[in-house]
Amino acid sequence: MKGGKISINRACGVGAAFLGLLSIVTIISAFLFARNPAIVWLCLLFILLVLSCAILFVVYLRRKLVLFSDNLCQTIDDMLNGAAAPPQIREEENLFYKINYRLARLYDVLRENRESIAKERADLQELISDISHQVKTPVSNLKMVNATLLEQPMPEEKRQEFLMASSGQLEKLDFLMKAMIKTSRLETGVISLDRKIQPLYDTLAAALGGILLSAERKNIHVGVDCPEDIILAHDRKWTSEALFNILDNAVKYTPADGDIQVSVQSWEFYVKIDITDSGKGIAESRQGMIFKRFYREEEVHDIEGIGIGLYLAREIVTMQGGYIKVVSTVGCGSTFSVFLPNE
Questions:
Q1: Could you read off the pLDDT of 281-299 as tens digits, one per residue?
Q2: Where does residue 333 fall: left (phi above 0), alpha (psi -120 to 50 degrees), or beta otherwise?
Q3: What order of strands is seen across the sheet that includes strand 259-266?
């Protein structure tokens, strides 16, 4: 029989039999050599005392082993069932505590991983739901336009109107896909920001270049106050993208003949970029929600957009160690303040 297959009870029985046999041999040897009953009785008493101590020790050890095995099984069951916390052994200086302590640490790691996976799964489901919601409308419109063009005869002028509508929906889908690709690459680390010490003036100018035409169409005055000597470490391409998204929102939600003011200040630890518009403003209860992906207020659904610009802007700024703050009053416009570390 292999030693690895001997149970604890059988090992204790074998040990007890060996000690009993050894005790009998010792008593017989003492009697044969000493021929004195008193010495034999002393040996017998000593052996009984030793056997009693050994039995008590084995009983105590077996009890501790059973208790530890029960706790170990309970801990493993808790890990499998996702219970709040495993049972703890309070004796901090024994072997059982060390094993239980490491099991508890393993349990915490597994629980954190499980919670992380659950959160990622919930985020993925939310993302899929959001994308499905955003794609459903333009796809439905495209199907309707395509069916109309195929099934109904119409003059060339009307046909051109339908084709223009179809082109608009395709552009919306293209914009959505590009925005999602940018966001995905940033979140997964496929694209890492390349922060270099360079003038902020050129970065801001690139962002402003993207909104000047749309601002001109609405006769919106854009004022800029940015010292050319402000230099800080930032990724020009992605920072320009973040500023453009905020400026683009300002143009969309500012009525015709309105004003947008951009000002830059260099502080000790941060460079502050304020983008102030004279638009409709944002209710205080909604100011914490506007940075959520695909969030749009009910009353602005007729304005072009998919609600991902501010989310992407916050991600870009946060990845560079900065943050965005918004101050707004309904009917009095909004101010988005971008803070970038002044290193």
A1: 888 878 778 887 766 655 5
A2: left
A3: 221-225, 259-266, 270-277, 334-341, 323-328
